[in-house]
Amino acid sequence: MAYRQSVHWPCDVQIISPESGLIVLLCARGTCLVGTAISNGLIKMRKKMDPGFETPNKAPPTLLNALTWAIHMGVSSNLRHQTLNGIEFLLAKGVPPLVFKSSVLVLRCLNNIVGGMSFVILARMTGSQSVEEKPAMVEVGSIAEKEKLVDGGDDLEINQSTFK
């Protein structure tokens, strides 16, 4: 069986092309379809096993979520990846190794944060993720208990919570 040999580009011959973004986009679409379907399936299985279980968030539509991930990976992620490679290439030539390695760590962490934020923004724009208003806080306790507290009731010690 013949194996395809990988092509190793020297650092100064990096190729930036729209095709690389398209490949990432298509791969992300496929993996997101599978991932979202598995996630939704696990949630349904949990609900069957535990009928009282309620998900904290509404499950996103599978196809829309896959398309959103594909756009994010093909455009934002690919652009950020190419930019980081360029910055790292320039830094490797101009700074000492310790500074280079430290800057790579910081840049990659910042890239992670920016990537997460850009996905959330895109997901909200496409409707894949929705922002729901949190319900108003419900007061706990009866009116009689409140009146005892206001009047300085006799059973105040009994009604106090031990939660700290």
Helix content class: 55-70%
Low-confidence stretches: 1-14
Cα Rg: 26 Å
- Average pLDDT, rounded to a whole number, is 75
Topology as a string of helices (H) and strands (E): HHHHH
Largest sheet composition: none
Q: Quick one: how many beta strands?
A: 0
Sheet/helix structural class: mainly alpha
Number of helices: 5
Measure the end-to-end span.
68 Å
Global morphology: flat
Task: Describe the protein.
- It is a single chain.
- The protein has about 160 residues and is mainly α.
- Helix content is about 65%, strand content about 0%.
- It has 5 helices and no strands.
- The protein has helices spanning about 20-50, 60-95, 95-125, 145-150, 155-160.
- Helix 1 (about 20-50) packs across helix 2 (about 60-95) and helix 2 (about 60-95) packs antiparallel against helix 3 (about 95-125).
- The protein starts with 17 loop residues before the first helix and ends in a 5-residue tail after the last helix.
- The model is unreliable at about 1-15 (pLDDT under 50).
